[in-house]
Amino acid sequence: MALVLAVTWSAKPGNEDRVREILQTLGEASRQEPGVITYTTHVDPENPREFFIYEMYHDASGLEAHQESAHFKEYVLQQAIPLLESRVRRQFTDF
Questions:
Q1: What proportions of the chain, in percent to the nearest 5, are helix, strand and coil?
Q2: Hey, how many other C-beta atoms are within 10 angstroms of the C-beta on 34?
Q3: Considering the domain boundaries, does residue 95 fall inside one?
Q4: 40-78 pLDDT, tens digit each
Q5: 3-state SS assignment for residue 91
Q6: Could you say which DSSP state residue 90 is in?
Q7: CATH classification of the domain holding 55
Q8: How many domains does the chain have?
C-alpha cells in the first residue's frame, strides 16, 4: 500500500528564497531514499512564499525512514521550520 503526503509550506515574508533553496536540497536527498517512490517540490507561480511538496512512499516504513534521515532533521526541522508561517501535512493511502 503506497502512502502519500501532501504538504504545504508558507514562508515568512523575506524567507522565500531560502526556503526554496532548502527544498531543492531536501528534494535531491529525499529522492535517493530507497522507500521513496516520488518526491516533488513546487512553488505557487503567483505567490512565491507558498510551496507544495508531493511525497509518495512504498509504505509507512518508508515515510518513517524519511523522517529519521539526517537530511530531514537538518533541512526541515532545523532550517526550514523556523522560516515558515505555516506547515500543513495531509496523509493519504491508496485503496
A1: 40, 40, 20
A2: 7
A3: no
A4: 999 999 999 999 999 999 999 999 999 999 999 999 999
A5: strand
A6: E
A7: 3.30.70.100
A8: 1
